[in-house]
Amino acid sequence: MSRILEIADLSFSYPAKEVFKKVSINMDQGEILCLMGPNGCGKTTLLDTIMGIHKAEHGRIKLMNQDLLTYSRKELSKLIAYVPQVHQVVFPYTVKQIVLMGRTSYVGTFSEPGKTDHKAVEDAMDLVGIAGMADKPYSQLSGGEVKLVLLARALCQQAPLLIMDEPTANLDFKNELIFLETIVRLNKRDDRSILMATHSPEHAFYLQGKGSKVRASMMSGGRIVAQGSPEKIITEENIEQVYGVRSAILLDHDQEGTPIRSITLRGIL
Ligand SMILES: Nc1ncnc2c1ncn2[C@@H]1O[C@H](COP(=O)(O)OP(=O)(O)OP(=O)(O)O)[C@@H](O)[C@H]1O
């Protein structure tokens, strides 16, 4: 199994704040890694550092066995697709124009997008169910619709590593499942590796139940405090320690006998 991402001893601080220290994470090709942790623990900053937006003070990141710093911006955009937590644009783009931006690294500087680019955009929009919104102004979408458009943009980038920051925030039940099912499909059919920061630990169980290879990492106080298979990491004890709340992990089985775990919150400690 080849490594898509190797993060070793990574540390980063903003001028007046240390965010994370000595973080080490490895991801195999074809794996889904769910990064969890309380608000403000550093998940987004870590994702931004992996994408080369922040420069780490210490440690190193290897992407597909090559030092991240040796890639050009254009090369990186073919290797990593990103669904951000929030996204604002000032120009009055249509939804289709935003999705087409996912093809930027494939289109020459002085060229127009070609047939392949338009086909990739249409396929991605069909897959996430937003084909009917193609000509709508992006600035007039709801928070949930924006997430679906950003997913379509990332899909047509066709990068081996997909990074998502709280992808299902703002989504209703059905769109949350469209998102999760799209992740499963990309992972199992296209062998994409997915790193997602999430406040919904049960997503790790859901994706695992659908046959994806899933691991969970829990971040707290700027460190990775637990890392491994979802059932070993997402435990009542770890949730108590990391989030300061009492919870119950419930185990059920679906019709095929596959275990399904869910979490209910019982109170603040
Ligand atoms: N540009 C910045 N300058 C200074 N401090 C920042 C900056 N951006 C974030 N921080 C701080 O760094 C810490 C980590 O923020 P980050 O957004 O990475 O957390 P997070 O785990 O993604 O949080 P959430 O779950 O709320 O999205 C927080 O304390 C935040 O206030």
From TrEMBL:
MF terms (GO), sorted A to Z: ATP binding; ATP hydrolysis activity
Domain of life: Bacteria
A Pfam family per the record: ABC_tran
SUPFAM superfamilies found in the cross-reference section: P-loop containing nucleoside triphosphate hydrolases
Keywords: ATP-binding, Nucleotide-binding, Transport
Gene3D superfamilies: P-loop containing nucleotide triphosphate hydrolases
Domain ABC transporter: 5-246
Protein name: ABC transporter ATP-binding protein
Biological source species: Alkalibacter rhizosphaerae
